[in-house]
Amino acid sequence: MTQRKPENKLDPDVQAHIGRQLRAGYVDILNQPVPDRFLELLAELDTREGEAERTSDELRQNGSR
Amino acid sequence: MSEGVSRAPRDELLVHIPSLRAFAVSLSGQLDRADDLVQETLVKAWRNLGSFTEGTNMRAWLFTILRNVYISEIRRRRREVQDTDGVFSENVAVAPQQNGHMDLEDFRKALTALPEEQREALILIGAAEFSYEEAAEISGCAVGTVKSRVNRARTALARRLNLEVGEIGIEPALKAALGPAVGSGTG
Fold this sequence. Notes:
The structure holds 2 protein chains of 2 kinds. By secondary structure, chain A is mostly helical. Chain A has helices at 12-30, 36-59. Chain A is elongated. Chain B is built from 8 helices and no strands. In chain B, 63% of the residues lie in helices and 0% in strands. In chain B, helix 6 packs across helix 7. By secondary structure, chain B is mainly alpha-helical.
């Protein structure tokens, strides 16, 4: 579509700006506390695992972890 | 915190949830959709913990899972969308304001408008700070491919945000505006 230069050289300031914006949005989420839904999910998986282990021990001899 | 024994898988996964959310939001551009991606990733990771090699990079492993969950969701959506003759709203080209004020929202829109594989590469390198080798492994492609995707992504973003450099370089006013750009948004 548009004419393409063989070498796309970005101004270092522009590149740094893009990097900062990118990181800012990312870090914003990174710093948020873990929502309860995930704590609950992991707790639920943990519980189910315990039950499943007991069941599978009876059903099959599978030593893999 | 207990020491000695290796950490329970639950704790291990817990540590990486903030990273996974940040990655998912950056990829999808939507918080609620991102959290669904994270949820599916955690369930899959839990089921496949046995295939995770201890001592290797769990964050990279989890990112790979999330990335694959995301890609299959994209494909599913694409099929559904084609059925209804629609278009991806998130892929509609963004026409940024020409006012020189570039806040995070403009940036986010421009990022969302990038082709999936370019956005993914840029996020992995520029935000999640993986090495090119790790990013290549996560994306299932060659290192050189990651590099070229990142370059194309940066160029496309610069163009969408009207930061593209002409032969005479960028305007002094724009250049000055770029300096303190982060955190200068007016909320």
